[in-house]
Amino acid sequence: MSDESRSTPAQTSVAAVIPAAGRGVRLGPGAPKALRALSGTPMLIHAVRALAASRHVALVVVVAPPDGAAEVKSLLDAHALPDRTDFLVVPGGESRQESVRLGLEALPPQYGIVLVHDAARPLVPVDTVDAVVEAVRDGAPAVVPALPLADTVKEVAPAAEAGEPEPVVATPERSRLRAVQTPQGFDRATLVRAHESVTENVTDDASMVEQLGLPVVAVPGHEEAFKVTRPLDLVLAEAVLARRRLNDGF
To answer: Which residue positions hold the site described Transition state stabilizer (predicted)?
Structure first.
């Protein structure tokens, strides 16, 4: 492709990939975490609606459990979703990294900006989604929403034996630390390259781009974009939804 015909992020459409193939063991036995109900609606549907609420997002790709694509497609069909957004369901892989890669491979060529979002962050506000997209459009190859830490963080060494106290070895400077959320946003070519070449020390998609030696920037995250992983998180998520209904008619 010539330089003249190559699209820039500002000229391309935005797609979101939501890997939803995990089992969510920390929430206990039962349905996969993404299909757990939150105020009577599966968390996955809340997450899809949250991404589709952005005026930038034209396509949402849901990466389903390998044997559950039909079930997830039926789920999407059964819930009201924005008409202006397209939706696609593809089967995922055995790992989150493989599922994101399969979601990327399913994207039509016109989508030059890709968001990767955790299905377990069902309440991310649209302003956060928009801020990530706009930072990619402004030229950043990778963008993460992030929050300052409220707690002091300690680095510890392994305990001598299981159950023993862990020795503290350092106290990182809290002002320079951030808790990273999703959606994370990427120039598509950058994310594809990362998935083709990075296989180790993967903590999130942005960490893969870091290993390429490319810059990753942070924009302000939001306290309501927390990850639902424990039963207590479900209680908090229900409270957030109840407040939204009361205040905004959500």
So the answer is: 26, 33
